[in-house]
Amino acid sequence: MLPDDVLLRMMEEKVRSWKNRQSAMNWMRLPRDEKLKKIKEFLYFKNCKNWCHLPPEIKLEVIKVLDFPGRLKLRMTARNERDLVDSLKINFESVTLTNDRSERWGVIQMTPSPRGSLLERFVSFRIFNKELYESAVHFLAYALKIGKIDSLEILEGYSPKRFNEFLKVLEKSAPFNVKNLMIKKLKKEAVMVFMKNLAPGVETIRLDGEGCESFPFDEFLTFPVFYNCETIKIESLAIVDAPSKLAKRWIDNDAEICTKLQCGLSIRSDNYLHNFVEEFSDRIVYQNENEARIWTNNDSKHILLRFFVQYEDLSGDEYLTCSIIPSDLEKSEYDLNMDWTVGMEACDSFGPYGTSWSEPEPDPLELFHFSKEYVEEIKGIDEKLKKIKVLLFIKRKNWCHLPPEIKLEVIKLLDFPARLKLRMTARNERDLVDSLKINFKSVSLYSNDERKWELRGRQILEKLVSFRIFNRKLYSSAVHFLAYALKIGKIDSLEILEGYSPKRFNEFLKILEKSAPFNVKNLKICQLKKEAVMFFMKNLAPGLETIHLHGEGCKSFPFDEFLTFPVFYNCETIRIESLAIVDAPSKLAKKWIENDAEISTKLQCGLSARSDRFLENFVEEFSDRIVYQNENEARIWTNNDSKHILLRILSWGDPFSMSVFLTCSIIPSDLEKSEYDLSMDWTVGMEASDFFSLRNGASWREPESEPLLEDIVNSFRDFEISYGRYFL
């Protein structure tokens, strides 16, 4: 660095060349020290070409401005940056590690404060295996290490034992700077680790007593951070002497006014009141059936215990509050606010009942010591032992030890997503799951408006599975999944509406064939190739009630081939859109007559050819069976005296856009004309004349050979000769 006088002389020469005379005059007015400071700062930052050249104190000022995601990215660049980032505390509005109500471990989410929205999620982990679980706990440990956390929530409801494996990792981040702590469904060991490592200054602690007497309230009272806490909230408390023991701590330590205990009670409130009054019988200021007030060693403070009931419908939950109040506070001035009870559990009849707080139990098999002589003396001991073993299996062992017959009973109660998860755990579980049928309300495979594939499986109205297909691999996954649904499912409604790549669908027919027969009640197929449609016809199990096809207004629709399948002509309802086969009703009627089909069996069609042709063909075929006819209908007798077949032509719409439909059904022979079913609800969504269809029978035509290059060239030459003059 040059001497100060040289730096000043060089700068003065530069200033004389400035065009802005005001700036030059301002510089000349500066004191010598200020001039030198500015010159050195300018020279220093001029030499700092990038972040690495900045001094640590400047870097720290920059890091203070970064939000939490920015700090995380910076600390991953180098060890020095990591040390700098970790040296600065960051305020979190909330840090939550929670179970998302699925059967796998949930999410860890963090919300920095005060920068940004309080509800904005910056970091999210979804835990599916042990490796990611470990990452989440390490991430929580990092947040505890560098954070000042306003609200920390640990709501672990899936694998609290696994959480205990990482307690040593968390202890390295001690002490934990937390204002408000909420812990539920963790094991006792983990909760105690948090109590030991909490830094002073905790304002609220919230725990769940789970309605059991093994809740370690006495152990919590050994931690000053617990009994010095401003607010203690405990759900489903069953420890009767808890308020009196805590009150003794408050008296011994002269706790501050407004310190309080708030609880939901799982046993009768009068037990708590009786114990409190008995413990402080020499300190009673006054008492009644719902409250008690005692004096403390400090004349300015009293302790008030109160009970109240929150009613919902016909049931009521009891709550307790024990607080330190000013000794001159009148009864009319009590805080009667009940907002704190929102979300607090009182009597947890269906909860885990102390599973978090109970000690590990011994192996139950060691509790039974049956000698052979004793067993022989008991009448019917074999049956009793069988029941004992089943009880021990169900109550004490894990899933792997359950016999297959018990597992099957459990699997019967699982919905479809749960069965899918279970079958991925082991080969035995896969075989058990696949051995049981599951009822589907609907399964549909169709092309949506975005020309991307989607497969959905639905059980009742709940969406269970969705595939969006973007490439061949996912397309294959979707078809494999459809094959699985056909294999293990009893499907009320199966819809295959392929409008994007029907040729590709044909490549997977061998995969689907392994799932035959298909247990389907109602089948709808549109825009598949003929080969695929015939494949479904061959593999449908008996019991099909409705089949819905699309004729596409072409005469190549293979109606004769469909009539070779009993599952088709024995179907209760056959629906065909845009039918152009004039003799289709008469051919089907012959099948019905031969097989003595049931009453109410019917054919419903939208017509793409003139309706009078259908009627003429029908009358011509059955001229010797006519009961009566007119311009819109014809009725014939069958070989069964109790059955007739009725053909009717229906139309609706204005004269300029008339849609014509046909229905052919088996009716009782004694049915009067006035009793005909005139409902046309089935026509909703049915196409009749398909004049504007771009497919025009593309599904039913045989594959065409590709044109030769010479034919294409000749076609373009003919086009040029005929129309080229219009483009000159």
UniProtKB/TrEMBL annotation:
Residues 396-443 form the F-box domain. It comes from the Eukaryota. PROSITE patterns: FBOX. This is F-box domain-containing protein.
